[in-house]
Specification:
77 residues; mainly beta; 3-stranded antiparallel β-sheet; 3 strands
Length: 77
Amino acid sequence: MPIYEYSCGKCGKVFKYLHRSFDEAKPPCPECGSEKVTKLFSSFAVKSGGKNACGSEGSCPADSGHTCCPGCCHHHH
């Protein structure tokens, strides 16, 4: 059962909803009851190309010594 994140077009509430099937209708907003909701893209489903936080291509080298967030480019001194 997939969990999707939605944003309400009326009140702005962002909420998650567990769908019981893939063809189930969009849920109403739990805050205001509006049916004007939009499915958001999950951050893990969006692949971005180009530069990372350091401004260089790719991710930090494996031997950079930090483990806070894989694929990021934070340098801890």
